[in-house]
Protein backbone atom coordinates (compact mmCIF):
# COMPACT_ATOMS: atom_id res chain seq x y z
CA UNK A 1 0.00 0.00 0.00
CA UNK A 2 1.40 3.33 -1.04
CA UNK A 3 -0.49 5.04 1.78
CA UNK A 4 1.33 3.17 4.54
CA UNK A 5 3.96 5.42 6.09
CA UNK A 6 5.90 5.69 9.34
CA UNK A 7 4.03 5.87 12.62
CA UNK A 8 6.32 8.35 14.29
CA UNK A 9 8.44 11.26 13.20
CA UNK A 10 11.98 9.98 12.74
CA UNK A 11 14.78 12.59 13.01
CA UNK A 12 16.68 10.77 10.29
CA UNK A 13 13.92 11.39 7.75
CA UNK A 14 12.42 14.67 9.00
CA UNK A 15 14.06 18.07 9.01
CA UNK A 16 14.00 19.68 12.44
CA UNK A 17 11.90 18.61 15.40
CA UNK A 18 8.67 20.45 14.75
CA UNK A 19 6.54 17.35 14.15
CA UNK A 20 4.30 16.11 16.89
CA UNK A 21 1.68 13.35 16.96
CA UNK A 22 1.65 11.38 13.71
CA UNK A 23 -0.32 8.21 12.92
CA UNK A 24 -1.03 7.07 9.37
CA UNK A 25 -2.41 3.90 7.82
CA UNK A 26 -3.14 3.16 4.16
CA UNK A 27 -5.63 5.91 3.28
CA UNK A 28 -6.09 8.05 6.41
CA UNK A 29 -4.15 9.61 9.24
CA UNK A 30 -3.65 12.39 11.78
CA UNK A 31 -0.80 14.86 12.17
CA UNK A 32 -0.03 17.70 14.63
CA UNK A 33 2.72 20.17 15.40
CA UNK A 34 4.98 19.38 18.34
CA UNK A 35 3.50 19.92 21.83
CA UNK A 36 -0.02 20.31 20.44
CA UNK A 37 -2.28 21.65 21.95
CA UNK A 38 0.48 23.36 23.90
CA UNK A 39 2.72 26.06 22.41
CA UNK A 40 4.83 24.87 19.50
CA UNK A 41 8.61 25.33 19.88
CA UNK A 42 10.71 28.14 18.38
CA UNK A 43 12.86 27.73 15.29
CA UNK A 44 11.69 24.31 14.19
CA UNK A 45 10.73 22.68 10.94
CA UNK A 46 8.38 19.76 10.35
CA UNK A 47 8.20 18.38 6.83
CA UNK A 48 6.32 15.23 5.91
CA UNK A 49 4.93 13.71 2.70
CA UNK A 50 1.60 11.96 3.05
CA UNK A 51 0.02 9.76 0.41
CA UNK A 52 -3.09 7.77 -0.36
CA UNK A 53 -3.35 4.95 -2.95
CA UNK A 54 -2.72 6.00 -6.53
CA UNK A 55 -5.82 6.92 -8.45
CA UNK A 56 -7.42 8.48 -5.37
CA UNK A 57 -7.65 12.15 -4.54
CA UNK A 58 -6.38 13.43 -1.22
CA UNK A 59 -8.70 15.17 1.27
CA UNK A 60 -7.14 17.39 3.94
CA UNK A 61 -9.13 18.72 6.91
CA UNK A 62 -7.71 21.29 9.30
CA UNK A 63 -9.10 20.74 12.78
CA UNK A 64 -7.08 23.57 14.32
CA UNK A 65 -4.62 26.21 13.13
CA UNK A 66 -3.10 28.72 15.57
CA UNK A 67 0.12 30.31 14.31
CA UNK A 68 1.25 33.60 15.83
CA UNK A 69 2.82 35.23 12.78
CA UNK A 70 0.60 37.56 10.73
CA UNK A 71 2.87 37.71 7.69
CA UNK A 72 3.80 34.02 7.25
CA UNK A 73 7.43 35.12 6.86
CA UNK A 74 8.84 32.75 9.49
CA UNK A 75 5.83 30.91 10.95
CA UNK A 76 3.53 29.15 8.50
CA UNK A 77 1.87 25.95 7.30
CA UNK A 78 2.25 25.03 3.61
CA UNK A 79 0.97 22.18 1.40
CA UNK A 80 2.81 21.41 -1.84
CA UNK A 81 2.01 18.87 -4.53
CA UNK A 82 3.68 18.18 -7.87
CA UNK A 83 1.48 20.75 -9.60
CA UNK A 84 -0.08 22.99 -6.94
CA UNK A 85 0.68 24.91 -3.76
CA UNK A 86 -1.80 25.60 -0.94
CA UNK A 87 -0.80 28.31 1.48
CA UNK A 88 1.21 29.48 3.27
CA UNK A 89 -1.30 29.86 6.13
CA UNK A 90 -0.76 31.73 9.39
CA UNK A 91 -2.13 34.38 11.75
CA UNK A 92 -5.75 35.44 11.46
CA UNK A 93 -6.16 34.85 7.72
CA UNK A 94 -9.14 32.85 6.47
CA UNK A 95 -8.09 29.25 6.07
CA UNK A 96 -10.18 26.60 4.28
CA UNK A 97 -11.21 23.85 6.68
CA UNK A 98 -11.10 21.27 3.89
CA UNK A 99 -8.93 20.90 0.80
CA UNK A 100 -9.72 18.42 -1.98
CA UNK A 101 -6.49 17.96 -3.94
CA UNK A 102 -6.17 16.72 -7.50
CA UNK A 103 -3.39 14.36 -6.47
CA UNK A 104 -2.73 11.40 -4.20
CA UNK A 105 0.39 12.91 -2.61
CA UNK A 106 1.23 16.14 -0.82
CA UNK A 107 4.11 17.47 1.27
CA UNK A 108 3.19 19.18 4.54
CA UNK A 109 5.66 21.79 5.79
CA UNK A 110 5.37 23.60 9.11
CA UNK A 111 8.02 26.13 10.05
CA UNK A 112 8.36 28.31 13.15
CA UNK A 113 10.57 31.25 14.09
CA UNK A 114 10.61 33.26 17.30
CA UNK A 115 7.17 33.56 18.89
CA UNK A 116 5.42 33.74 22.24
CA UNK A 117 2.22 31.74 21.78
CA UNK A 118 0.43 29.48 19.34
CA UNK A 119 -0.86 25.91 19.40
CA UNK A 120 0.36 25.13 15.89
CA UNK A 121 -1.87 22.83 13.85
CA UNK A 122 -3.88 19.61 13.81
CA UNK A 123 -4.91 18.05 10.51
CA UNK A 124 -6.44 14.82 9.34
CA UNK A 125 -6.46 13.34 5.86
CA UNK A 126 -8.11 10.55 3.90
CA UNK A 127 -8.59 9.41 0.33
CA UNK A 128 -11.54 10.57 -1.75
CA UNK A 129 -13.28 7.31 -0.83
CA UNK A 130 -14.19 9.03 2.45
CA UNK A 131 -15.83 12.39 1.66
CA UNK A 132 -17.45 12.37 5.13
CA UNK A 133 -14.05 12.61 6.85
CA UNK A 134 -14.01 14.46 10.17
CA UNK A 135 -11.15 15.51 12.45
CA UNK A 136 -10.28 14.14 15.87
CA UNK A 137 -11.68 17.31 17.46
CA UNK A 138 -15.30 16.92 16.31
CA UNK A 139 -17.85 16.52 19.12
CA UNK A 140 -21.38 15.17 18.96
CA UNK A 141 -22.68 18.58 20.07
CA UNK A 142 -21.53 19.94 16.69
CA UNK A 143 -24.29 18.01 14.90
CA UNK A 144 -28.06 18.47 15.01
CA UNK A 145 -29.20 15.31 13.23
CA UNK A 146 -30.44 12.41 15.34
CA UNK A 147 -28.71 9.88 13.06
CA UNK A 148 -25.62 10.34 10.91
CA UNK A 149 -22.50 8.57 9.66
CA UNK A 150 -18.93 9.90 9.55
CA UNK A 151 -15.44 8.65 8.79
CA UNK A 152 -12.83 8.84 11.57
CA UNK A 153 -9.16 8.90 10.51
CA UNK A 154 -6.46 6.77 12.08
CA UNK A 155 -4.73 8.26 15.11
CA UNK A 156 -7.40 9.99 17.21
CA UNK A 157 -6.88 8.06 20.47
CA UNK A 158 -4.01 10.16 21.85
CA UNK A 159 -5.30 13.57 20.77
CA UNK A 160 -6.09 15.75 23.78
CA UNK A 161 -9.78 15.94 24.68
CA UNK A 162 -12.19 14.31 27.13
CA UNK A 163 -15.00 11.82 26.74
CA UNK A 164 -17.63 10.89 29.34
CA UNK A 165 -19.74 7.74 29.39
CA UNK A 166 -19.46 4.17 28.14
CA UNK A 167 -20.50 1.90 25.30
CA UNK A 168 -23.63 0.62 27.08
CA UNK A 169 -25.27 3.79 28.43
CA UNK A 170 -23.91 6.12 25.79
CA UNK A 171 -21.65 9.17 25.84
CA UNK A 172 -22.20 12.76 26.87
CA UNK A 173 -22.70 14.90 23.74
CA UNK A 174 -19.65 17.02 24.62
CA UNK A 175 -17.40 13.98 24.07
CA UNK A 176 -15.04 13.71 21.10
CA UNK A 177 -16.72 11.47 18.52
CA UNK A 178 -13.73 9.53 17.17
CA UNK A 179 -12.12 9.07 20.57
CA UNK A 180 -15.42 7.74 21.92
CA UNK A 181 -15.67 5.34 18.95
CA UNK A 182 -12.25 3.92 19.83
CA UNK A 183 -13.30 3.63 23.48
CA UNK A 184 -16.48 1.76 22.46
CA UNK A 185 -14.56 -0.67 20.26
CA UNK A 186 -16.28 0.49 17.07
CA UNK A 187 -13.00 1.32 15.33
CA UNK A 188 -9.32 0.66 16.01
CA UNK A 189 -7.06 3.68 16.54
CA UNK A 190 -4.45 2.42 14.10
CA UNK A 191 -7.04 1.90 11.35
CA UNK A 192 -9.77 4.51 11.72
CA UNK A 193 -13.10 3.71 10.12
CA UNK A 194 -16.75 4.52 9.55
CA UNK A 195 -19.00 5.27 12.53
CA UNK A 196 -22.80 5.45 12.71
CA UNK A 197 -24.13 7.70 15.45
CA UNK A 198 -27.52 7.86 17.18
CA UNK A 199 -28.37 10.97 19.19
CA UNK A 200 -30.67 10.45 22.17
CA UNK A 201 -31.95 12.25 25.24
CA UNK A 202 -29.32 12.75 27.92
CA UNK A 203 -29.12 10.98 31.28
CA UNK A 204 -28.41 12.29 34.76
CA UNK A 205 -24.99 10.66 35.19
CA UNK A 206 -22.36 9.11 32.95
CA UNK A 207 -20.13 6.36 34.31
CA UNK A 208 -16.57 6.23 33.00
CA UNK A 209 -14.39 3.19 32.33
CA UNK A 210 -10.97 2.44 30.85
CA UNK A 211 -11.36 0.75 27.48
CA UNK A 212 -9.03 0.23 24.52
CA UNK A 213 -6.43 2.55 26.00
CA UNK A 214 -8.88 5.45 26.42
CA UNK A 215 -10.02 6.60 29.85
CA UNK A 216 -13.61 7.80 29.89
CA UNK A 217 -14.49 10.05 32.80
CA UNK A 218 -17.63 10.21 34.89
CA UNK A 219 -19.96 12.91 33.58
CA UNK A 220 -22.86 14.97 34.87
CA UNK A 221 -26.34 15.61 33.48
CA UNK A 222 -26.56 16.64 29.84
CA UNK A 223 -29.40 17.47 27.50
CA UNK A 224 -28.26 14.95 24.87
CA UNK A 225 -26.10 11.85 24.57
CA UNK A 226 -25.02 9.63 21.70
CA UNK A 227 -24.55 5.94 21.04
CA UNK A 228 -22.96 3.94 18.23
CA UNK A 229 -24.68 1.32 16.12
CA UNK A 230 -22.80 -1.96 15.81
CA UNK A 231 -23.20 -5.47 14.44
CA UNK A 232 -24.74 -6.61 17.73
CA UNK A 233 -21.94 -9.06 18.54
CA UNK A 234 -21.28 -7.73 22.03
CA UNK A 235 -23.05 -10.14 24.36
CA UNK A 236 -21.42 -11.81 27.32
CA UNK A 237 -20.25 -15.34 26.46
CA UNK A 238 -21.26 -17.57 29.37
CA UNK A 239 -18.44 -19.30 31.21
CA UNK A 240 -19.11 -22.51 33.13
CA UNK A 241 -16.78 -22.75 36.15
CA UNK A 242 -16.98 -26.56 36.07
CA UNK A 243 -14.46 -27.69 33.51
CA UNK A 244 -14.47 -24.68 31.19
CA UNK A 245 -11.75 -22.64 32.91
CA UNK A 246 -8.21 -23.93 33.56
CA UNK A 247 -5.00 -22.26 34.66
CA UNK A 248 -1.28 -22.95 34.76
CA UNK A 249 -1.36 -22.79 38.57
CA UNK A 250 -3.46 -21.42 41.42
CA UNK A 251 -2.84 -19.96 44.85
CA UNK A 252 -4.11 -20.78 48.32
CA UNK A 253 -4.03 -18.18 51.08
CA UNK A 254 -4.92 -18.35 54.76
CA UNK A 255 -7.41 -15.85 56.21
CA UNK A 256 -7.47 -14.30 59.65
CA UNK A 257 -9.38 -17.28 61.05
CA UNK A 258 -6.73 -19.69 59.85
CA UNK A 259 -8.89 -21.10 57.07
CA UNK A 260 -7.54 -21.76 53.59
CA UNK A 261 -8.85 -19.56 50.78
CA UNK A 262 -8.66 -21.05 47.30
CA UNK A 263 -8.00 -18.71 44.37
CA UNK A 264 -8.95 -21.31 41.78
CA UNK A 265 -9.59 -20.89 38.01
CA UNK A 266 -13.31 -21.49 38.56
CA UNK A 267 -13.46 -18.16 40.38
CA UNK A 268 -12.27 -16.20 37.36
CA UNK A 269 -15.77 -15.27 36.14
CA UNK A 270 -16.24 -11.51 36.32
CA UNK A 271 -19.87 -11.68 37.43
CA UNK A 272 -19.11 -13.89 40.45
CA UNK A 273 -18.58 -12.48 43.93
CA UNK A 274 -15.55 -13.32 46.04
CA UNK A 275 -11.84 -13.70 45.27
CA UNK A 276 -10.57 -14.06 41.70
CA UNK A 277 -8.19 -16.57 40.24
CA UNK A 278 -4.58 -15.96 41.31
CA UNK A 279 -1.44 -17.74 40.13
CA UNK A 280 0.75 -19.74 42.45
CA UNK A 281 3.89 -17.84 41.42
CA UNK A 282 4.20 -14.31 42.80
CA UNK A 283 7.66 -13.50 41.42
CA UNK A 284 7.94 -10.66 38.94
CA UNK A 285 11.45 -11.18 37.59
CA UNK A 286 10.81 -14.19 35.35
CA UNK A 287 9.50 -14.61 31.83
CA UNK A 288 5.69 -14.69 31.64
CA UNK A 289 4.54 -18.31 31.73
CA UNK A 290 1.30 -18.23 33.70
CA UNK A 291 -2.00 -18.42 31.82
CA UNK A 292 -5.75 -18.63 32.26
CA UNK A 293 -7.53 -20.80 29.67
CA UNK A 294 -11.21 -20.72 28.72
CA UNK A 295 -13.04 -23.40 26.75
CA UNK A 296 -16.17 -21.96 25.12
CA UNK A 297 -17.48 -25.40 24.20
CA UNK A 298 -17.49 -24.60 20.50
CA UNK A 299 -16.18 -22.09 17.99
CA UNK A 300 -17.33 -18.55 18.83
CA UNK A 301 -16.74 -15.06 17.54
CA UNK A 302 -14.95 -13.15 20.32
CA UNK A 303 -15.00 -9.38 19.94
CA UNK A 304 -13.62 -8.29 23.31
CA UNK A 305 -12.65 -9.03 26.90
CA UNK A 306 -13.30 -7.36 30.26
CA UNK A 307 -10.88 -7.89 33.12
CA UNK A 308 -10.49 -6.97 36.79
CA UNK A 309 -7.91 -7.72 39.43
CA UNK A 310 -8.50 -9.60 42.67
CA UNK A 311 -11.54 -7.38 43.58
CA UNK A 312 -10.44 -7.79 47.23
CA UNK A 313 -9.29 -4.60 48.97
CA UNK A 314 -6.77 -6.41 51.19
CA UNK A 315 -5.19 -8.15 48.18
CA UNK A 316 -3.96 -5.47 45.78
CA UNK A 317 -3.28 -7.88 42.92
CA UNK A 318 -3.91 -7.16 39.23
CA UNK A 319 -2.52 -7.74 35.73
CA UNK A 320 -1.16 -4.61 34.04
CA UNK A 321 -0.70 -6.04 30.54
CA UNK A 322 -1.39 -9.29 28.71
CA UNK A 323 -1.45 -11.02 25.33
CA UNK A 324 -4.10 -13.34 23.89
CA UNK A 325 -3.58 -16.86 22.53
CA UNK A 326 -6.29 -18.86 20.81
CA UNK A 327 -6.91 -22.15 19.00
CA UNK A 328 -9.55 -24.59 17.81
CA UNK A 329 -9.80 -28.36 18.05
CA UNK A 330 -6.59 -30.19 17.07
CA UNK A 331 -4.79 -26.98 16.16
CA UNK A 332 -1.79 -25.16 17.56
CA UNK A 333 -1.95 -22.09 19.76
CA UNK A 334 -1.75 -18.79 17.89
CA UNK A 335 -0.97 -15.34 19.29
CA UNK A 336 -3.25 -12.43 18.48
CA UNK A 337 -1.32 -9.86 16.43
CA UNK A 338 -1.76 -6.24 15.48
CA UNK A 339 -2.99 -5.39 11.99
CA UNK A 340 -0.42 -2.74 11.14
CA UNK A 341 2.88 -4.34 12.14
CA UNK A 342 1.77 -8.01 12.40
CA UNK A 343 3.50 -8.26 15.76
CA UNK A 344 2.25 -9.72 19.02
CA UNK A 345 -0.32 -7.29 20.38
CA UNK A 346 0.03 -6.38 24.05
CA UNK A 347 -3.23 -5.20 25.64
CA UNK A 348 -3.43 -2.64 28.42
CA UNK A 349 -4.76 -4.29 31.57
CA UNK A 350 -5.86 -3.01 34.95
CA UNK A 351 -4.44 -0.19 37.04
CA UNK A 352 -6.01 -1.33 40.32
CA UNK A 353 -7.59 -4.42 41.89
CA UNK A 354 -11.20 -3.22 41.51
CA UNK A 355 -12.19 -1.34 38.35
CA UNK A 356 -12.97 -3.31 35.16
CA UNK A 357 -11.09 -2.63 31.92
CA UNK A 358 -12.30 -3.53 28.43
CA UNK A 359 -10.29 -4.36 25.32
CA UNK A 360 -11.81 -5.09 21.93
CA UNK A 361 -10.45 -7.35 19.22
CA UNK A 362 -10.48 -5.75 15.77
CA UNK A 363 -10.64 -8.01 13.85
CA UNK A 364 -12.40 -10.47 16.17
CA UNK A 365 -11.01 -13.81 17.33
CA UNK A 366 -12.84 -16.88 16.01
CA UNK A 367 -11.93 -19.82 18.22
CA UNK A 368 -13.07 -22.32 20.85
CA UNK A 369 -10.14 -21.99 23.25
CA UNK A 370 -8.56 -18.73 24.42
CA UNK A 371 -5.75 -18.03 26.85
CA UNK A 372 -5.01 -14.82 28.70
CA UNK A 373 -1.23 -14.66 29.18
CA UNK A 374 -0.18 -11.95 31.68
CA UNK A 375 2.92 -9.95 30.74
CA UNK A 376 3.22 -7.54 33.66
CA UNK A 377 1.38 -7.43 37.00
CA UNK A 378 1.26 -5.85 40.42
CA UNK A 379 2.43 -8.07 43.33
CA UNK A 380 0.70 -11.24 42.10
CA UNK A 381 -1.21 -12.31 38.97
CA UNK A 382 -4.93 -12.11 39.71
CA UNK A 383 -7.73 -12.06 37.14
CA UNK A 384 -11.44 -12.10 36.64
CA UNK A 385 -12.56 -12.15 33.02
CA UNK A 386 -15.63 -11.82 30.84
CA UNK A 387 -15.49 -12.62 27.13
CA UNK A 388 -17.68 -10.60 24.75
CA UNK A 389 -18.95 -11.91 21.44
CA UNK A 390 -21.59 -14.09 19.80
CA UNK A 391 -22.25 -17.24 17.82
CA UNK A 392 -20.76 -17.34 14.35
CA UNK A 393 -22.76 -17.91 11.19
CA UNK A 394 -22.75 -21.37 9.62
CA UNK A 395 -19.71 -21.93 7.47
CA UNK A 396 -18.01 -18.79 8.74
CA UNK A 397 -14.74 -19.68 10.43
CA UNK A 398 -12.76 -16.66 9.29
CA UNK A 399 -12.07 -13.37 11.04
CA UNK A 400 -14.65 -11.66 8.82
CA UNK A 401 -18.17 -11.44 10.22
CA UNK A 402 -21.21 -11.91 8.02
CA UNK A 403 -24.66 -10.80 9.07
CA UNK A 404 -27.33 -13.46 9.20
CA UNK A 405 -29.10 -13.56 5.86
CA UNK A 406 -32.81 -12.94 5.58
CA UNK A 407 -35.16 -15.77 4.63
CA UNK A 408 -35.37 -16.29 0.90
CA UNK A 409 -38.65 -16.73 -0.92
CA UNK A 410 -40.01 -18.41 -4.03
CA UNK A 411 -42.75 -16.62 -5.93
CA UNK A 412 -45.24 -17.95 -8.50
CA UNK A 413 -46.81 -15.30 -10.69
CA UNK A 414 -50.30 -15.80 -12.00
CA UNK A 415 -51.38 -12.90 -14.18
CA UNK A 416 -51.81 -9.99 -11.77
CA UNK A 417 -51.20 -11.76 -8.45
CA UNK A 418 -48.09 -13.14 -6.76
CA UNK A 419 -48.08 -15.87 -4.15
CA UNK A 420 -44.95 -16.03 -2.02
CA UNK A 421 -43.97 -19.15 -0.11
CA UNK A 422 -41.18 -18.72 2.47
CA UNK A 423 -38.28 -21.11 2.24
CA UNK A 424 -36.36 -21.58 5.51
CA UNK A 425 -32.79 -20.34 5.38
CA UNK A 426 -29.97 -22.46 6.78
CA UNK A 427 -29.10 -19.58 9.09
CA UNK A 428 -32.64 -18.93 10.33
CA UNK A 429 -32.83 -19.36 14.06
CA UNK A 430 -35.18 -22.07 15.37
CA UNK A 431 -38.58 -21.04 16.65
CA UNK A 432 -42.15 -20.47 15.54
CA UNK A 433 -42.48 -18.21 12.53
CA UNK A 434 -45.92 -16.65 12.13
CA UNK A 435 -45.58 -16.57 8.36
CA UNK A 436 -44.80 -20.29 8.09
CA UNK A 437 -47.89 -21.09 10.16
CA UNK A 438 -50.38 -18.68 8.59
CA UNK A 439 -49.67 -19.39 4.94
CA UNK A 440 -50.17 -23.20 5.12
CA UNK A 441 -53.48 -22.66 6.94
CA UNK A 442 -54.71 -20.31 4.22
CA UNK A 443 -53.57 -22.74 1.54
CA UNK A 444 -55.34 -25.62 3.26
CA UNK A 445 -58.67 -23.77 3.38
CA UNK A 446 -58.41 -22.72 -0.27
CA UNK A 447 -57.42 -26.20 -1.39
CA UNK A 448 -60.26 -27.87 0.49
CA UNK A 449 -62.97 -25.76 -1.14
CA UNK A 450 -61.34 -25.64 -4.56
CA UNK A 451 -60.62 -29.34 -4.52
CA UNK A 452 -64.19 -30.26 -3.62
CA UNK A 453 -65.57 -28.24 -6.52
CA UNK A 454 -63.02 -29.51 -8.99
CA UNK A 455 -63.50 -33.11 -7.99
CA UNK A 456 -67.28 -32.85 -8.44
CA UNK A 457 -66.87 -31.33 -11.90
CA UNK A 458 -64.23 -33.87 -12.75
CA UNK A 459 -66.48 -36.82 -11.95
CA UNK A 460 -69.22 -35.52 -14.23
CA UNK A 461 -67.10 -34.54 -17.20
CA UNK A 462 -64.53 -37.28 -17.16
CA UNK A 463 -64.38 -39.14 -20.48
CA UNK A 464 -62.49 -42.20 -21.59
CA UNK A 465 -59.70 -41.97 -24.15
CA UNK A 466 -58.31 -38.65 -23.02
CA UNK A 467 -56.99 -38.37 -19.47
CA UNK A 468 -56.92 -34.60 -19.81
CA UNK A 469 -60.46 -33.85 -20.95
CA UNK A 470 -62.21 -32.99 -24.20
CA UNK A 471 -60.81 -31.05 -27.11
CA UNK A 472 -63.15 -28.16 -26.33
CA UNK A 473 -61.89 -27.95 -22.83
CA UNK A 474 -58.35 -27.88 -24.09
CA UNK A 475 -59.11 -24.68 -25.96
CA UNK A 476 -59.81 -22.67 -22.79
CA UNK A 477 -57.39 -20.09 -21.48
CA UNK A 478 -56.74 -22.17 -18.41
CA UNK A 479 -55.75 -25.18 -20.49
CA UNK A 480 -53.31 -23.04 -22.45
CA UNK A 481 -51.64 -22.00 -19.22
CA UNK A 482 -51.17 -25.61 -18.17
CA UNK A 483 -50.32 -26.81 -21.63
CA UNK A 484 -47.66 -24.16 -22.25
CA UNK A 485 -44.84 -25.93 -20.43
CA UNK A 486 -45.55 -29.14 -22.32
CA UNK A 487 -44.87 -27.42 -25.63
CA UNK A 488 -41.32 -26.98 -24.39
CA UNK A 489 -41.14 -30.70 -23.51
CA UNK A 490 -40.88 -30.04 -19.79
CA UNK A 491 -42.18 -32.32 -17.12
CA UNK A 492 -44.42 -31.37 -14.20
CA UNK A 493 -46.66 -32.93 -11.57
CA UNK A 494 -49.40 -30.96 -9.83
CA UNK A 495 -50.84 -32.53 -6.68
CA UNK A 496 -53.90 -31.41 -4.72
CA UNK A 497 -54.93 -33.13 -1.49
CA UNK A 498 -58.09 -32.39 0.43
CA UNK A 499 -60.43 -33.89 3.02
CA UNK A 500 -64.11 -34.63 2.55
CA UNK A 501 -66.42 -35.77 5.29
CA UNK A 502 -68.26 -38.19 3.00
CA UNK A 503 -65.33 -39.56 1.07
CA UNK A 504 -61.79 -40.52 1.87
CA UNK A 505 -58.82 -38.34 0.92
CA UNK A 506 -58.48 -37.98 -2.84
CA UNK A 507 -55.44 -37.08 -4.87
CA UNK A 508 -55.57 -35.51 -8.30
CA UNK A 509 -52.47 -35.54 -10.42
CA UNK A 510 -51.49 -33.91 -13.67
CA UNK A 511 -48.52 -35.76 -15.02
CA UNK A 512 -46.63 -35.49 -18.26
CA UNK A 513 -43.33 -36.87 -19.35
CA UNK A 514 -40.87 -35.23 -21.62
CA UNK A 515 -39.72 -36.96 -24.74
CA UNK A 516 -36.51 -38.25 -23.22
CA UNK A 517 -37.46 -39.54 -19.76
CA UNK A 518 -39.90 -39.87 -16.90
CA UNK A 519 -38.56 -37.18 -14.55
CA UNK A 520 -41.39 -35.60 -12.55
CA UNK A 521 -41.23 -32.30 -10.71
CA UNK A 522 -43.84 -31.73 -8.00
CA UNK A 523 -45.17 -28.23 -7.34
CA UNK A 524 -48.01 -26.82 -5.27
CA UNK A 525 -50.66 -25.01 -7.33
CA UNK A 526 -53.33 -22.60 -6.14
CA UNK A 527 -56.47 -22.49 -8.22
CA UNK A 528 -58.89 -19.60 -8.51
CA UNK A 529 -62.36 -19.33 -10.06
CA UNK A 530 -60.96 -19.03 -13.57
CA UNK A 531 -58.76 -22.09 -13.55
CA UNK A 532 -59.62 -25.74 -14.10
CA UNK A 533 -57.55 -28.88 -13.83
CA UNK A 534 -57.74 -32.28 -15.50
CA UNK A 535 -56.14 -35.25 -13.85
CA UNK A 536 -56.12 -38.94 -13.38
CA UNK A 537 -57.00 -40.93 -10.35
CA UNK A 538 -53.97 -42.48 -8.75
CA UNK A 539 -55.86 -45.42 -7.41
CA UNK A 540 -55.15 -44.35 -3.83
CA UNK A 541 -58.67 -44.13 -2.44
Automatic annotation (TrEMBL):
Residues annotated as domain F5/8 type C: 226-390
LCCL domain ranges (all copies): 130-226
Keyword list, A-Z: Disulfide bond, Membrane, Phosphoprotein, Transmembrane, Transmembrane helix
Primary localization: membrane
Localization per Swiss-Prot or TrEMBL: Membrane
Transmembrane segment boundaries: 437-458
One GO cellular component term: plasma membrane
Region (Disordered): 256-290
Membrane topology listed for this record: Single-pass type I membrane protein
SMART domains associated with the record: CUB, FA58C, LCCL
Entry's Gene Ontology molecular function annotations: signaling receptor activity
Disulfide bond residue pairs: 19-46
Gene3D superfamilies reported for this sequence: Galactose-binding domain-like (2.60.120.260), LCCL-like domain (2.170.130.20), Spermadhesin, CUB domain (2.60.120.290)
Annotated protein name in UniProt: Discoidin, CUB and LCCL domain containing 1
Organism for this UniProt entry: Rhinopithecus bieti
Phylogenetic placement of the source organism: Eukaryota, Metazoa, Chordata, Craniata, Vertebrata
Gene, per the UniProt record: DCBLD1
Amino acid sequence: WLGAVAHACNPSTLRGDGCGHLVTYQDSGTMTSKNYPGTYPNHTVCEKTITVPKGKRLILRLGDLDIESQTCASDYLLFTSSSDQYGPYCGSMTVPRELLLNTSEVTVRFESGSHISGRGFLLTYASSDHPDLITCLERASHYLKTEYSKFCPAGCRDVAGDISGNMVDGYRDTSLLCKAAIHAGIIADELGGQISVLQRKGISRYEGILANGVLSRDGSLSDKRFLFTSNGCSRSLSLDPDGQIRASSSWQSVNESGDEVHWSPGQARLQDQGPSWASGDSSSNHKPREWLEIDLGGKKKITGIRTTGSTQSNFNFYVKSFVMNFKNNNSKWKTYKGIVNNEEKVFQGNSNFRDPVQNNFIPPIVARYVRVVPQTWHQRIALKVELIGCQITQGNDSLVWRKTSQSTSVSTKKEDETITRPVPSEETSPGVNITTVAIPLVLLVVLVFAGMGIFAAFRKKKKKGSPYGSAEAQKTDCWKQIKYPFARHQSAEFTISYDNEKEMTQKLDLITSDMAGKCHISRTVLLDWRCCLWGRETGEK
